[in-house]
Amino acid sequence: MTAVYFFAVILVVLLAAVLVAPLLDRQPSSGTGSEPDERLAEALESLRELEFEHETGKIGDDDYRAMRAEYAAAAIAARDAGATAEPERGERRGGTGTAAVCGVCEARVAPGAKFCSRCGTQVAVATAHGEPGRGGQAE
Question: What is the pTM of this model?
């Protein structure tokens, strides 16, 4: 009878070890990626999945709008963090290295962008004569 109890105790210890081992060996969750490129890729994937779920009718319009705004903000923050982490990115790719800055919120503006990605303000662009214009709007 003692052998049965001994076998049961060993079986319980092994079962507990199998169940607890994955909890102790956890990898960092995907939402805490330290690299801006990883966070951007995750946010874009979340946006794609959300779009699919909305198109198939699994997510209502109100929830879709709220979640899309949240995921889009996360994607923009990750993109901006990547731009801040590598300010010389344009120089290494052969660019001029001079980035435009939004006149309202002072965020960096991508080359060729017509609007600020942070506040949505139309960005002044240089005309053919090198003078600042307002992106084709009459002044």
Answer: 0.40
